[in-house]
Amino acid sequence: MSRQPSAPILFTIPEQFESNRLVIRAPQWGDGAAVNEAVIESIDELRLWMPFAQSIPTVDETEINIRQSRLRFIS
After folding, report:
1. Backbone φ/ψ region at 62: left (φ over 0), alpha (ψ -120 to 50), beta
2. 1 has a pLDDT exceeding 70
3. N or C terminus: which one in the chain shows less Cβ crowding within 10 Å?
4. Rounded to whole angstroms, how far apart are CA atoms 41 and 25?
């Protein structure tokens, strides 16, 4: 029986989940171009639900967002 960590900092959170056909992970440094392409392809649908999607971001803006989000997650 494993014991529950006494503080949240001690929790182990996987960086990704994998199956035979799929990898689920948070975006990482360098993913800006691919994420930006996905945002552009889905912008009309995203605008209905996501505040960030009211305008089309540049690749650099997307990369900045990814990096800021990753740093917030780590901290």
Report:
1. alpha
2. no
3. N
4. 20
pLDDT at 56: 93
Q: What secondary structure, in 3-state letters, does 28-55 show?
A: CCCCHHHHHHHHHHHHHHHHCCCHHHHC
Q: Residue 13's pLDDT is what?
A: 82
Distance CA 48, CA 70 (A): 25
Average model confidence (pLDDT) for the chain? 91
Give the three-class secondary structure for 23: strand
At residue 4, the pLDDT reads 77
> What's the burial of 27, exposed, middle or buried (CB within 10 Å: 0-12/13-18/19+)?
middle
